[in-house]
Amino acid sequence: MGEKKRTFHGALGGFFGLVSMSAVAGLLITVAITPALALSGLATTSTINAFENLPNYLAIEKLSQVSSILYDDHGTDAQLASFYDQNRIEVPLSSMAIAVREAATSAEDPRFNEHGGIDLQGTVRGALSTFTGNGTQGGSSITQQYVKNVLVQKCEVMTDEDEADSCYDDATMPTVDRKLKEMRLAIGVEKNYSKDEILQGYLNIAGFGGSVYGIEAAANFYFNGTTAANLSPSQAASLVAIVNNPEKYRLDRPESETNGAANGYAANKERRDYILDKMLEYKKLSQEDYDVAIASLVEPVILEPSTGCQTALGSAFFCDYVTHVLKTDPIFGEDADTRMLNFRRGGYKIYTSLDVDLQRASESTIAENVPQTFEDWDVGAVATSVEVGTGRVLAMAQNKLYSQDPEVQATGPQYTGINYNTDFNQGGSMGFQPGSTYKVFTLAEWLKEGHPLGERVDSARKSDWGSFPDYCDGAQRFPGYNPRNDSNEAGRNYSALESTIDSINTGFMGMAKRLDLCKIRDTAEAFGVHRANGEPLEKGASSVLGTNEIAPLTMAVAFAGIANKGTTCTPIVIDRIIGADGVEIPAPVSTCTASVEPDVAAGMAYAMERVMTQGSAGQSYRNTSPRSPMIGKTGTTDGSKDTWMSGASSRVATVVGVVSVTGIDTNQRNVYFDSGQAATARHRMWPDIMSVANTKYGGDEFEQAANNLIRGVQVTVPDVRGQSVDAARETIEDAGFGFLDGGVTDSELPAGTVSRSEPAAGQSTSTGATVTVYSSNGSQLLLPNVVGQTLDQAKGTLSGFGVVANEQPVTDPAQNGKVISMTPAAGTPATPGGTVTVVVGKTG
Fold first, then answer.
1. pTM tops 0.85
2. pLDDT tens digits, residue range 352-365?
3. Domain range holding 806?
4. Rg of the chain over CA atoms, in angstroms?
C-alpha cells in the first residue's frame, strides 16, 4: 500500500502537538529546528539525539573556476584562451557592490544577520509547504542555500558519472532527512565562518544560468564586461533574481522564448521588482534610488565568454599544443582526462612562452605566401620557432583555421583540428618527411667519427651501393635503391663540405657508406629526433636522405641543439603556473642534454653557415635583414612534394615548410601561388620570421671550427701514373686514402696502366679522402713537335692527324715557310684522326 499524503490540518495538528511539550520545544527552538523536527513526526528525545549526531562540519573546497592560458604582450598579460566547466571568477565581498549584498539578503534571507544558520520563520513556512504535499521549497536561509550549493559543487567535480548522479540526488532530493542534514551543516558553518565569509561564498558559488556561476562572471556575461563592483541596484537585483530560478529568470534566452527580449524579460523583471521592493522595505535602498531602479528596463548586453583554443585565432594551434602538454603534466592529476578536467576547473593562470612578435610574423608570412586551400591539393604550411638554449617554443603557426568541431571541419579543407607542427600524441599529424634537412645528422656522425669536412667520398650515382655498416642488425644492402641528385649532378668525388653546401644526395650516400646506419640514427635521436607517430626511427639507406616522418617542432628543437654548441633542450611552452589561490605551482622544465661535443657542433655550424652564404639556402640568407650569423639546411622530398627551410641563429631556431597534408603527389615546382612559386615559398617565409628574431634577439658568431675538422690532416697524393691498377690501389691505400676505380679513359699511356688520378698527383687532401684512379685505353699519342719544319715536313710528322695550316706574317726570313706554332701543343695527348692546327710564317 502506498504512503498516505498528509493533509494540511493533520500536519499542523502534529506540529502544535509536539511544540506543546514545552521542554522539548524549548530545546528545539534553541537549535532553530523545531518545525522540521516536529513535522517529521519523530519522538522528542530520539529526535534531538539523532539531530545532534548528524555531521555538523562541512569541508568547503575551492570552487570550480576559469583557467586561462596567457602570454606576454610587451609587458602586459594577454589571454590566449580560457577554459572552464563553470564560468566563474571568484572575488572577495569587498569587490561586490553594496547593492549586490543587500539584494541577496533582502530577497533571500532578510534575517541573515540575526539567525544562527537557520531562519525559524522561514523554516516553518517551508516546512508547512513540504508537509502539505507541495515539496521542500522556500524557507532556506542563505547559509542553508550555501550549504546546498557546496554539496552540489562536490558532486559536479566528480569524474565518475554514476557517483556524481548519486551525489547530486542526495544533495537535492526534497526529503526531510536531506533538509535536516542541510540545517545541521548550516549551524556548523555559522559556527566556523563569519557572516561576511558566508555571504561571499554564497555569491561566488551560486548559479546564474547555463555555465555562468558567481556574481562576478554573471556581471561580466550579462552586462557586457561589467564587474560585480560596478553593478547598479537595478542590475544587481536582476542578477540576484536569476539565483532563485536560473532557468526561468536568466537573461540570455532568444527573443522567441516567453522570457526573451521581445517581452522585456518579463519574468526576470517581475522577480527583480520584487527584490527592489524588499530592498526598499528593509531600508536597504533609498526612495530616490528605488524610483530610478524600478523605472529602468531590463537591458542585458551579453558578452559571450571566450573559451577554448578556437578563440586564439592564428595562435590556436600553439594553444592546442599547450593543452596537450597540460594533459601530460602530473601536476594536474593522475591521467590525461583527470588532468584536463582539473585544469578546466582549477582557476589556473598558465603563462606561456609565446613571443607575440614572432607569432604575428609567422601568421602574417604564411597568410601572404601560402593559401588556406588550393585546387586539387590539400596544401599545408607550417612555421615553428624555438629559443636556443632554453627549449622555449616562441611561435607556432599554420595555414589552416582551427576547429575541433567535426561539422565545421566538414565545411572545407581550410578547417582542421590537427596541429601539423607537433607529434600525433600532442594533437598533431603523423609527421612529414623532412627531406635533406635530415642530412645534418649524417654530417654530425661524420664529424664524430673523425672525418673532416674536406674529405672526399665516392659520390657517383650507381644502381647498387653495396653494403652499409649497421652495428644493430649487421651490414645491410638495398638493391635497386638509386637516388639521384636534385639538379642531376653526376657526382664523383665530392667532399663532405661540398655535399652539405649543395645538398648532394649521392655525396651523403657515400658518407653513409663510411659510417654506420645505426649510429646515424643514434645521433639523430641524441638531438631529440623521433617519428611523429611514436614508432622508432627507420635506419635504411633512404633514411639518410630524410624519409622518416617527423614533426616540424622536433626538427626545430634539433636545429636549436646544433646552434647551442651541440646541447639539445626539450621543448617547453609553459613558463609558470599560478593557482587560483595565487600561489605559484612548479611548471614543466626543459631537459638539456649534450647531443654532440661542442667541437663537432662547431664543425656542423661551419658547413651549415656555408649552406646559407654559398649553397642551397642562399635565397633565405639574402632575404633576411638584419643578418646575424646563421646556419641552415634546405630539404626537398621526392617529386618536390614537400619543401623545407630549417635554420638558426645562436638565439632562435626556425623551421618552415610547405607540405602535402594528405600525401598528394603535387610537384611544387610546377605550382604557383599569388606570392610566387610554391617551391620557393619557404625562402619567403623563413626570412620574414628570422628577420624579426634577429632584430629582437640578435645573435653571436658560432664557435670557430678546428682546422682538423675542416681540412683534416693533409697528405700529398702519390703519383701512380703508369702503374697497374692493382699496384696503384696498394700505393694509394698505403698512403691513407680510399681508392676508387674510375674506369677507362683516353690516354697516351699503355693500355691498362693508370693514366691520371683525382685529386692529381702532388696535390694535398685530407687523409682518408677518396682518390679516384683512371686507367688508360692506349688510344692516344703524344703530339710530336713540328715547330721549325716546313708544312710538308709537318704533315709527314703528323701522319694520322688532320693538319690545318694558317699563315702569319713574319719579319725573320729564317721563319719564312716554317711552322712557328701548333695547337694542341707538342707533347699533348691526342687521339689519331684528330686535327692539329699549325701556323706557317710568311715574309713580304
1. no
2. 999 999 999 999 99
3. 785-842
4. 42
